Amino acid sequence: MPKDAVTDHPVNTLLATRWSPYAFADQRVTSDDLRALFEAARWAPSSYNEQPWTYVVASRHDAPDEFVRLLSCLNDGNQTWARHASVLALGVVTLRFTRNDKPNVAAQHDLGLAAGNISVEATARGLVVHQMIGILPDRARDVYAIPEGSEALTGLAIGYPGDAQTLPEGLRERDLAPRKRKPLSAFVFAERWGRSAPLVVPRDKSS
């Protein structure tokens, strides 16, 4: 079933084809591809070029014991399907600037930008990335000795798309369902909160 986004306005093909499946194929992601994904993260923009992201990574095919250890840092619901991904990673954010030790209120935003770069680079290589907030930060801190001032925030499952028919019923329905998004008029405002910007409202419906 095609999963390309049906966009209201033209966007780059990589953005339209990027999606986050639950089903993964039993296929190894090469080290070259993984290096490219994290190189993409490296060049994401960040406040004061702080680059407040760190990734902990484990490959199921290359280091199965380490993969199981990282898998244990996900909540039970995510472990159910993420155990079949080729690679797992934790996105860790450093919450204070190294330059002056002041709070970095953009840190989580910047980790998200890095993750976005990873997702787009993965799509360009025929890979998929499923990001998840359902992780166990305290477990991750204990397992990987994450220092104070840094926090495991997200998990990433990386691999090749698999067969949705192999998933439990609830997850299978999610993978097979058409992709949907809010219209631009629901989140692009002008003049006041809640008023759709004229540029995103069809002219025959604007007031």
Largest pleated sheet? 4 strands, antiparallel
- Amino- and carboxy-terminal Cα gap: 39 Å
Query: How would you name the CATH homologous superfamily of the domain at 20-163?
Result: NADH Oxidase
Content of β-strand? 5-15%
Radius of gyration: 19 Å
Share in helix: 25-40%
List the uncertain runs.
none
Order of helices and strands: HHEHHEHEHEH
Average pLDDT: 95
What's the CATH class label of the domain at 20-163? Alpha Beta
Topology:
Layout: H1 13-17, H2 31-42, E1 53-59, H3 64-71, H4 76-82, E2 87-94, H5 107-124, E3 128-132, H6 137-144, E4 150-159, H7 169-176
Antiparallel strand pairs: 1-2, 2-4, 3-4
Give the structure's gist in a few sentences.
The chain has 207 residues and is α+β, with helices and mostly antiparallel strands.
Please tell me about this protein's structure.
The protein is α+β, with helices and mostly antiparallel strands and 207 residues long. It has a domain at 20-163: NADH Oxidase, CATH 3.40.109. Helices cover 32% and strands 14% of the residues. The chain contains seven helices and four strands. A four-stranded antiparallel β-sheet has the order 1-2-4-3, with helices on both faces. The longest helix is centred in the middle third of the chain and has 18 residues, at 107-124. The protein is globular. 28% of the residues are buried.
